[in-house]
Amino acid sequence: MVNISIPKTPYRKVPAPWRTAYELPFLFDPMVMMVIGFVLSEALRQLRKDEFLARQPLREQATTDQLTGLLNRRTMLQLLQQEHARARRYGATYSLILGDLDRLKVVNDCYGHNIGDIVLQEAAPSLDPTVTADDIKPAQTDEP
């Protein structure tokens, strides 16, 4: 354990000619303050990193459909608004492609929603080879 003694007076005289007439106590030494600042900034950086990593699963849960892993309706609408605003700002065009699983309602009615969920889970990955990194793949249903 390091024992640091602080003088009773706030300043002490320093006789060396290359120093100023008075020297601050040890804790106010510029080098000590720099080390303390470095340690605190590193601790704050680690805290921010941990907080960011803890929020990632929450963000994914809030933006994706749990069943298919595709973007949910709210996220799709937000991204669509952003893309529309970007296209208007730059005078560009964009495409919106909607897909539909024919007779999914019949599958749900005849075989149950568990089978319909399996159909959705199997259909969702088939979108991957057809899109690029810039494309958005939302999951949306019109059925009650």
Could you walk me through the main structural features you see in this protein, from its secondary elements to its overall organization?
The chain is mainly alpha-helical and 144 residues long. The chain folds into 3 domains: 18-63; 65-96; 98-132, no CATH class. Helix content is 49%, strand content 3%. The chain has 4 helices and 2 strands; from the N terminus they run ββαααα. The chain has a two-stranded antiparallel sheet. β1 and β2 form a beta hairpin. α3 runs antiparallel to α4 (113-123). The longest helix has 34 residues, at 30-63.
Task: Please summarize what this structure is.
The protein has helices spanning 30-63, 73-90, 104-111, 113-123; strands at 12-13, 22-23.
Q: Residue-averaged pLDDT, rounded?
A: 79
Given the helix and strand composition, which structural class is it? mainly alpha
Order of helices and strands: EEHHHH
Instruction: Tell me the span between the first and last alpha carbons.
Output: 68 Å
Provide the fold topology:
Elements: E1 12-13, E2 22-23, H1 30-63, H2 73-90, H3 104-111, H4 113-123
Antiparallel strand pairs: 1-2
Helix pairs in contact: 3-4
Keywords for this entry:
single chain; about 140 residues; mainly alpha; 3 domains; two-stranded antiparallel sheet; 4 helices; 2 strands
